[in-house]
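Marked as duplicate of an earlier ticket. Keeping the data here for the record.
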Amino acid sequence: MRSFIVGLAIGFMGVVPLAQAQGAYPNKPVRMVVGYAAGGISDILARSVAQAMGKHLGQPVVVDNKPGASGMIGADGVAKSAPDGYTIGLSSGGPFAINIQMVEKPLYDPIKDFTHIGQVSISDMVLIVNNSFPGKNLAEFVTEVKKQPGKYSFGSAGLGLPTHLAGELLKQTAGLDIVHVPYKGDAPALTDLIGGSIPAMVASLGSAVNQIKAGQVRPIAVFGKDRVPSANTIPTVAESGYPGFHAMLWGGISGPAGLPPEVLSRLSSALRSALQEPEVKSRFADLGLVASYNSPEEFTAYIKDDSAKWGAIIKRLGLKQPG
């Protein structure tokens, strides 16, 4: 009997660590992969969300920067990780709806290879012009460009980036003959716009808001469905004569395909709570972003719609990923 009891006790001691290891999710830190270098807007956004999510999960969420291939290296790492909820990643339009459609052999499928946990943020794009440009609103802008087809140009942060494609979408919608000039970022394009080297530009609102407020450039229209509260004097493209037009920059959180339902629910709930934190909302506002949660189902549908929108333009223009 004594041998039996000792054996039972030893066996029980072995079961306790196993039970702890298989306890409720999460029972160790969660890694959040960011496909961009530290210090940029995407990295700052991710760290704000990670810190807040960690409080609600009861475990740290640690940011792991894996830059490369316009965010696709990081996304591929998430897709190929174990579906246990301990590796998630920041998702955005580039690697999930745009750049992935510009490569011959995609590393992953943005829908089939991921479990999309929820949207994190949205931010607007804006059409701005040099102060000497004749048009004061979108109708006048369109009229002026149509007077002299091919004369005018618009700048963007780079070939195939959301601001470029949003400009192409406006060209298509309004029937404009206007030339795209790609830059290496919003900053050099803004410099040339203010200096008069280019007459117009499509920029992220966050990058151009200071120049707009200072009167260095003139805003024509924002590309989202609604006016931006912090810049509510700028009308939308939709209300300026093109109903249904909208294009947004967005960010979200995604994990590998096959996340267990209980893990997905836990992560989604923590994300929703994190985005309600005043500190997170304030940090987002500083970056020109709006905290915007939607459910895993809604977020997946959103990515599908965004991919279809940009995919049609990418195919029409024959765009390929540089390098």
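See parent ticket for discussion. Residues 4-21 have pLDDT under 50 and may be disordered.
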